[in-house]
Design brief:
The protein is mostly helical. 74% of the residues lie in helices and 0% in strands. The mean pLDDT is 94.
Length: 197
């Protein structure tokens, strides 16, 4: 039992470090945040961080990759039971919004740091964009939507949710994203089904 108690405390400390880091990274940026500030926010000694992470950069990347992979896996599970493209879009949009609302700090962190970390994502890592891209590619092959550049279509459809999320980061939009699932899903459908001129 004693060993379990120690493990529990270690896990709790690691989680506190991660949460403190996330909050600071979103507020100030990864480069501008120091390990000293993270330690102060987590109420631990600075050296304790290095028990769990070799560096601030590794901590930042781990947080990004874990969310990136988990979101991709959640999106796959969300759309898998849906049969029609319209239902798949709604399931994917609802999943994105639910993830944003459940842990806004983590979602905002992923959104704000993607340009820093996407190049470091291992090739075999599940990727939220690829999940959407695959659904769109399949729909184009099946003739459900007009044929067009798949990456452009995926970017436009994802942008329907992610641009409002970006506005929320900067305070131009408030409240839960889930309140707008129907609007986002209709808009994503409209973007995907628009005919080329």
């Amino acid at each position: 039992p004693h060993k379990l108690a120690v493990m529990g405390k270690a896990d709790e400390t690691k989680a506190r470090v991660e949460r403190a880091a996330l909050t600071l990274f979103v507020a100030r940026g990864v480069a501008e945040t120091t390990t000293r500030e993270i330690a102060m926010a987590a109420s631990i000694a600075e050296g304790t961080i290095y028990r769990y992470f070799p560096s601030k950069e590794k901590l930042a990347l781990d947080l990004f990759l874990r969310h990136h992979r988990a979101l991709a896996e959640a999106l796959v599970e969300a759309h898998r039971p849906a049969k029609s493209l319209r239902a798949k879009i709604e399931a994917i949009v609802a999943c994105y919004c639910d993830w944003a609302d459940r842990d806004w700090t983590l979602f905002a962190y992923h959104l704000l740091t993607q340009h820093l970390f996407l190049a470091m994502v291992p090739d075999d890592t599940p990727n939220p964009v690829n999940v959407v891209r695959d659904v769109i590619a399949q729909a184009i092959r099946a003739g459900d939507i007009p044929r067009r550049n798949i990456d452009l279509a995926a970017a436009a459809a994802i942008g329907v949710v992610m641009q409002p999320a970006t506005y929320k980061v900067y305070g131009r939009f408030t409240g839960p994203l889930s309140a707008h699932v129907r609007f986002f899903a209709d808009a994503a459908w409209a973007v995907l089904s628009v005919k080329e001129r």
